[in-house]
Amino acid sequence: MPSYPHRTTREDLRVPLPDGTELYARLWRPATDAPVPVVLEYSTGRLTDWTATEDARRHPWFAGHGHAAVRVDARGHGNSGGLPPTAATADRLVEDGVDLVHWLADRPWCNGRIGLLGTGAAGALALRIAARVPDAVRAVVTACPDGPHRLGGAVLAADVHTRSTAHLADAARPPDPLYVGDDWRAQWLARLDALEPPLADWLAAPAAPTPAAAVPTLAVAGWSDPSAAAVLALAERSTAAVPVRAVLGPWPHGLPDEFLPEALRWYDHWLRDVDTGAPATPALRSWLGTRWSADDPWPSPGVREVHYGLDGPLRAAGTASEDRWVRVRSPQHTGLNAGAYVPHGRPADRPPDQREEDGRSVCFDSRPLPEPLELHGSPALTLHPDPLSGGALVAARLCAVAPDGTSTLLTRGVLTLPVDPADPADPDPVLALAPVGATVPPGHRLRLTLSSTYWPWLWPDADPDGFAVDPSRSALSLPVHDPATSTDAAPFRSPTLPLPPPLHLTEPLTARPERVTVHDIGRREWRTELSPATDGTRTHPDGLVRAEHTVTAYRVLTATPLSAQARTDRTLRLERPALGWDITVHTRTELRCDATHLHAHTQLRAEEAGNVVFAKEWHQRIRRDGG
Length: 627
What we know:
Elements: E1 8-16, E2 22-30, E3 36-43, H1 52-64, E4 68-73, H2 91-105, E5 110-119, H3 121-132, E6 137-143, E7 150-151, E8 154-155, H4 160-171, H5 177-180, H6 184-194, H7 199-204, E9 217-222, H8 228-236, E10 244-249, H9 260-272, E11 284-287, E12 292-295, E13 303-309, E14 315-316, E15 326-328, H10 355-359, E16 362-365, E17 373-377, E18 380-382, E19 393-401, E20 407-416, E21 430-432, E22 436-440, E23 445-451, E24 467-469, E25 475-481, E26 487-488, E27 504-506, E28 515-520, E29 525-530, E30 536-539, E31 545-557, E32 560-576, E33 581-593, E34 597-608, E35 611-623
Parallel strand pairs: 3-4, 3-5, 5-6, 6-9, 9-10, 10-11
Antiparallel strand pairs: 1-2, 2-4, 7-8, 11-12, 12-26, 13-25, 14-16, 15-24, 16-23, 17-22, 18-21, 18-25, 19-20, 19-23, 27-30, 28-29, 29-31, 30-31, 31-32, 32-33, 33-34, 34-35
Helix pairs in contact: 2-3
């Protein structure tokens, strides 16, 4: 254990809720009789296995620096009691969080001040809880608050059914008998009977926007994470009364270790009344590819919009000069080199050289840049479509093309064109691209590409004819950053964290590739399979043996959009050999589409010592327009 200002203790707790349900919690706190503030991380993860390694690194570090760090499993998950919330009871998580905050604030070892910490869905949840109890919650640190399930009116195919499958499998895992005793089985069977796959509810309507900050908030994400736009939105709504500070870096999804000292500064200032200077930090610190930039305020006056017309500074090759319209009609496998929708830092997550994708798209290229170009913010593409293109899917990518032809993805966005032809007096539709922080070197060209499909990120448009645009009335607006208007920010450094408990990983003897694509030329079919590098068997220090195996597959016929299909299979196994305890959970989600609906078939099977104790299937029909 590294040396910190405080020695620490650890204990497991049961937190009673008003309805009698008990939540399972783990507490690390300084070995002192004086009350201290609490840093609370509350999520649907399982603190005794799934998140145990990260918990054992980060929470003792907070405790060693003067905060009581509490990690709590949500209702119906891990070793907590109760049933997992469904769509009809989704507010239960927030209500439980509010009760949890009040309970912690009343502990004799707490000074009544709570800081919330959360990543992903738990990061968005922390913002909602803080809005309900701003008197007790004095600060929030949120990392990668959840991104949307629809983009520009199009329905996500990537990640959503995989997350739904994982969510169902994780919620179907039983309480651990080592921690809850003989009652584990009755709790498990009740939990299984209450489960519902979340897929239909996620896709039924656009995701709720990330709530505004109600207390001082520190937000962080990677530029390539779908939550980057939410982090910028939080920074834009910062006020003197409720300050927000944001950081966007070169990180995958998650809470970066390098960010922890910033989180501690934030908590120390708002929870311990230590003048750390945290509120005086710039509104936004961001990695721009070659340097860390500090901008205050945000939006920055040093960012100006530069417009590139699609018939001038950007120009398509091979279009007849007398033809007003540029037709975009892409093969259905356009998008296979998109990379991961939510990048977790694995090599196959990164989008590769985009030349193959460029060849399946219509490209508008600039001249070579005479000097470096810093992009910092959210580009926008104004399109003038052919009125007959109503309802078509438009996917846009912005790339930097090196002198040797290498095409590097900078950002992308999608838009579903209005179904009805627009009134000539109506403004042209605007496609919002994801935020970008990058420096394009001199000699490189900017390339804007348009395609009519982006599989397997998005479910294809039923009409394979694509769309047409008028370049003379279309333009790309880029957020160009003047380096002279911002200061260089100091790089972030990882702290010295405790070593995690020893975890023995047994990798599969025949490990699957993280991502493999097969082109069946005879069938004109493209198939992609993904298998996360986290698969394998882990033996925990307390004797738990945990095995995971996941495969996600996509297929599409290159000329038939409604042939698109997606499937994820997930198997989890938990064993305690000393107790003779052996549990296996299998989940599968299959999705296909027609012109108006998605059709989902979800299966769940739970086994105890090889015997099936529960099995259920769901068939769901989900409107593609969210109605």
